[in-house]
């Protein structure tokens, strides 16, 4: 898993698995979603922060991932989602 410092957010980020992302989302931790072929924050596409506070009350983790995959994942940007979290929240 990838571990790096993001200067735009000023945070040390850690790539996590989908299982870990689901658990942290349920604990109301901010998860960052990014297409698999893209770097974390670029001028082409920045990572999408998601947590329970900024989502509709009836949306679950699966619906958020499905919507992100539909609109942001393709042959050019990558077909899969990479999940990132601030190291402080682990």
Task: Describe this structure as you would to a colleague.
This protein is an alpha+beta fold and 90 residues long. It has one domain. Helices cover 23% and strands 27% of the residues. It is built from two helices and five strands, in the order E-E-H-E-E-H-E. The chain has helices spanning 18-26, 61-72, and strands at 3-6, 11-16, 31-35, 48-50, 81-86. The chain has a five-stranded antiparallel sheet. A hairpin with a 4-residue loop joins strand 1 and strand 2 (11-16). The longest helix has 12 residues, at 61-72. 19% of the residues are buried. The model has no long low-confidence stretch (mean pLDDT 89).
Blueprint (SSEs and pairs):
Elements: E1 3-6, E2 11-16, H1 18-26, E3 31-35, E4 48-50, H2 61-72, E5 81-86
Short description:
This protein is α+β, with helices and mostly antiparallel strands and about 90 residues long.
Average of the residue pLDDT scores: 89
Total tally of structural domains: 1
What is the count of helical runs?
2
What is the count of β-strands?
A: 5
The helix-strand sequence is EEHEEHE
Multimeric organization? single chain
Beta-strand content estimate = 25-35%
What value does the Rg take, in angstroms?
A: 12 Å
Spatial gap, N to C terminus = 14 Å
Structural class computed from helices and strand pairing: alpha+beta
Largest sheet: 5 strands, antiparallel
Segments where pLDDT lies below 50 for 5+ residues? none
Helix content: 10-25%
């Amino acid at each position: 898993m990838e571990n790096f410092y993001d200067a735009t957010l000023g945070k040390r980020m850690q790539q996590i698995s989908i299982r870990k992302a689901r658990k942290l989302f349920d604990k109301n931790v901010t998860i960052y979603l990014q297409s698999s072929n893209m770097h974390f924050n670029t001028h082409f596409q920045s990572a999408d922060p998601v947590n329970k506070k900024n989502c509709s009350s009836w949306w679950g983790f699966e619906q958020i991932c499905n919507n992100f995959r539909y609109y942001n994942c393709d042959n050019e940007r990558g077909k899969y989602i990479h999940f990132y979290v601030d190291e402080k929240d682990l």
